[in-house]
């Protein structure tokens, strides 16, 4: 039996996709590489390419593969998690295969929510993921993001069932259901099955670590990588009071990204690093953002920026 490597604990960054300021909003690979190199040099464990922050649904498959291939060539030591999109089992299996060929080490797959909870059962979701995993050429991370999957929430029992598949090695929890965080993080069955749970929102990193979650895949780490790693390390070193204080600041800054999402991340990256010709995405995300929320949290942003520069 093949042994599939679990994703090691720590901080991972879901990359935004940078576009040039031209009519096609073509890929800005120069900015993409510069940003990834900074994250690697800062100590980030790996990157998620083609996720929700990466605007994968607005990219062609060749563009997604170009990103993986380019970043793997530029920073070959980086662990790359490839986002795949869609609901067709055979096509997802194929996407995973070509992602591996271009340098990805893991795949992350969103819970299938197109038809909503009235039609999609937990048994159906389990069947769907297992059918993909049976033929997948990369280990799979379950992506549970109810906000974009018609409110469907993968249950604890479903996690336990899916963790029994050797190729399903972890999950990304992008929600605030702390009952589920606790059950998944504290489960000896999941741990015995070599299943690694990760938070998908940095706002709850310290509370999540306290119940056994092994790390975070969070957008704020693309702006403040050293600060997010520092927060993770403070908790791991037992410095809980310091970790709690920093968590408060991280959560305050994340309030901006929670509202503005990937466009807020792009705005913050441009502000800090000067990277990216365009601050908007592809249609329908091609409109300038209202920066009122940014202004509201700017003082907290400056405090976190000062910490980042000191690390």
UniProtKB/TrEMBL annotation:
CDD domains: DHDPS-like (cd00408)
Pfam families: DHDPS
Active site: 143, 172
Keywords, alphabetical: Lyase
Domain of life (superkingdom): Eukaryota
Keyword Lyase: yes
Binding sites annotated in the UniProt record for pyruvate: 217
GO molecular function: 4-hydroxy-tetrahydrodipicolinate synthase activity
InterPro entries membership: Aldolase_TIM, DapA-like
Keyword presence, Isomerase: no
SMART domains registered for this protein in UniProt: DHDPS
Family: Belongs to the DapA family.
Name under which the protein is recorded: Dihydrodipicolinate synthase
């Amino acid at each position: 039996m093949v042994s599939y490597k679990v994703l090691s604990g720590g901080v991972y960054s879901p990359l935004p996709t940078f576009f040039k300021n031209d009519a096609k909003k073509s890929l800005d690979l120069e900015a993409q590489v510069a940003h990834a190199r900074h994250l690697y040099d800062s100590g980030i464990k790996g990157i998620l390419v083609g996720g929700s922050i990466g605007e994968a649904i607005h990219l062609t498959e060749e563009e997604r593969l170009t990103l993986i291939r380019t970043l793997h060539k530029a920073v070959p030591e980086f662990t790359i998690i490839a986002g795949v999109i869609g609901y067709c089992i055979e096509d997802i299996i194929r996407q995973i295969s070509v992602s591996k060929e271009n340098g990805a080490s893991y795949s992350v797959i969103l819970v299938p929510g197109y038809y909503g909870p009235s039609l999609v059962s937990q048994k159906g979701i389990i069947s769907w993921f297992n059918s993909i995993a049976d033929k997948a050429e990369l280990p799979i991370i379950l992506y549970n993001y109810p906000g974009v999957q018609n409110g469907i929430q993968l249950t604890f029992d479903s996690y336990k069932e899916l963790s029994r598949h050797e190729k399903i090695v972890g999950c990304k929890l992008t929600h605030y259901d702390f009952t589920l965080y606790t059950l998944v993080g504290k489960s000896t069955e999941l741990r015995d099955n070599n299943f690694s749970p990760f938070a998908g929102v940095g706002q709850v990193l310290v509370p999540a670590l306290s119940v056994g979650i092994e790390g975070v895949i969070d957008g704020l780490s693309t702006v403040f990588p050293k600060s997010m790693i520092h927060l993770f390390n403070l908790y791991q070193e037992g410095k809980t009071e310091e970790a709690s204080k920093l968590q408060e600041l991280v959560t305050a800054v994340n309030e901006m990204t929670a509202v503005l999402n990937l466009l807020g991340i792009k705005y913050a990256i441009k502000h800090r690093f000067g990277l990216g010709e365009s601050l908007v995405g592809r249609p329908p995300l091609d409109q300038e953002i209202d920066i009122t929320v940014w202004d509201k949290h700017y003082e907290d942003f400056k405090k976190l920026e000062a910490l980042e520069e000191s690390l």
